[in-house]
Structure formats: C-alpha cells, structure tokens
Design goal:
Layout (H helix, E strand, L loop, with lengths): L1 E8 L10 H13 L6 E9 L2 E8 L12 H15 L1 H6 L15
Antiparallel strand pairs: 1-3, 2-3
Helix pairs in contact: 1-2
Length: about 110
C-alpha cells in the first residue's frame, strides 16, 4: 500500500464548515475515484487555511515502471475531484500538480 499526503488550500473567502466538511471531502473523493486510482482509504483533517489528506492507494504488484506512480494517481484523483465537485471548487484552490522530483517511502 502506498500512502500519499496532500493538501488543498482554502480559498480566502471560505471558512471551515464544521465537522461535516471532512466527510464531504472524503465522499467527493470516493464519488470521483476510478479503479485505476487504487484508492483504498482516505482521511481528512480540516485546518483553518487548508484540508490535509492522507490517501491510501493500492501498490502496483508487480511494480510497473510504465504505470503512473502513487503520487501521479493521487494528483489525478484530486484534480478530477476538484473539477467535478462544485463544493470543492468553491471552497478550495485547484490542487497543484506533483513536483517533478519525488521520493517514495515504504
């Protein structure tokens, strides 16, 4: 299993919406996840200026160097979710693409 940490930065005009906000974000992730994303579990922590996410993704077994990395799959999921979810689009800035240089920790 691969774990990816990501954050969505809150738009300046958006304030935290209470305890249900984390559940809404997780629901949106599941609603827009595809089997290729390999999403197994997700957790969200609401902060005043952002939401922090831990995405647990299935590892590729056997490893396929031509397949998207866990970071690329998580990024694609967040971008797709942000574009398709009016609430995420309204509350959060678009997710940044993954950095060119990445490090995998197992």
């Amino acid at each position: 299993m691969d774990i990816v940490y990501a954050s969505l930065m809150r738009r300046g005009t958006s304030a935290p919406r209470g305890t249900g906000e984390a559940a809404e974000i997780i629901d949106a992730l599941w609603a827009h996840a595809t089997p290729d994303d390999g999403l197994e579990h997700a957790g969200a922590t609401i902060e005043p200026d952002r939401v922090d996410l831990l995405l647990y993704l299935l590892s590729r077994t056997p490893p396929d160097p031509t397949a998207p990395s866990a970071l690329q799959r998580a990024s694609a999921l967040l971008i797709r979710c942000h574009q398709a979810s009016p609430r995420l689009h309204q509350r959060y800035l678009p997710p940044a693409p993954p950095a060119a240089s990445t490090r995998t920790v197992r």
